[in-house]
Design goal:
single chain, 88 residues, mainly alpha, 2 domains, 3 helices, 78% helix, flat
């Protein structure tokens, strides 16, 4: 297994995170909060890359149920975000 801290290529998750990081820096808030948010965005992006990288190493016949479980988990996060948006 390769070094998980060094994915072979930059994932779509990192590319998708860049506009969010730019948005964070365009919003008036403390520099400390901006740094914390950027750090969390980077960690989420890295975790997604690593998760997919690890799943790719699982035998093909087991990847689908793991990916479906991961998808369900991500959908619950999206549902929570949607709930927060409704309340704004």
């Amino acid at each position: 297994m390769e070094d998980l801290n060094q994915p072979a290529e930059e994932g779509k998750e990192k590319v998708a995170a860049n506009p969010l990081k730019k948005l964070v820096y365009s919003i008036p808030m403390s520099v400390e909060d901006k740094v914390v948010l950027e750090d969390m965005i980077n960690k989420l992006s890295q975790e997604a890359d690593i998760m997919l990288y690890i799943i790719n190493d699982i035998p093909k016949r087991h990847q689908k149920p793991v990916l479906l479980g991961y998808k369900t988990m991500l959908q619950s996060v999206i549902a929570a975000v949607n709930d927060r948006l409704k309340n704004l």
